Automatic annotation (TrEMBL):
It is found in: Endoplasmic reticulum membrane. Transmembrane segments: none annotated. This is Glycosyl transferase family 1 domain-containing protein. The lineage of its organism: Eukaryota, Viridiplantae, Streptophyta, Embryophyta, Tracheophyta. The keyword Zinc does not apply. It comes from Aegilops tauschii subsp. strangulata (Goatgrass).
Length: 91
């Protein structure tokens, strides 16, 4: 799944840090970046600390991902745009 697709679904991103990724992933706003596997492990542990009730960091990043992505939810976009076309093609 691509970063932009994830944001459109409100899913924060943990991405490998490479040139230009910071144009999409804003650290501590809509995702996190890592350079090593241990950094990724630390980030995942932080994100799921207190799961499922007390995931404050994950909830915050989720909000940032939603605001970065589409203004509407994926299901709304599907029902409004894609589904009518699929129904038209299928008949």
């Amino acid at each position: 799944m691509k970063v932009v697709d994830m944001f459109g679904c409100g899913l924060p991103v943990c991405a490998a840090s490479f040139s230009c990724i910071e144009e999409l992933v804003k650290v501590n706003r809509n995702g996190l970046l890592f350079s090593t596997s241990s950094e990724l492990a630390d980030e995942l542990m932080m994100l799921f600390k207190g799961f499922p009730e007390e995931c404050d960091t994950l909830k915050s990043l989720n909000g940032g991902a939603l605001s970065t992505g589409s203004s509407s939810k994926w299901s709304t976009e599907w029902e409004t745009n894609a589904l009518p076309l699929v129904k038209q093609v299928i008949g």
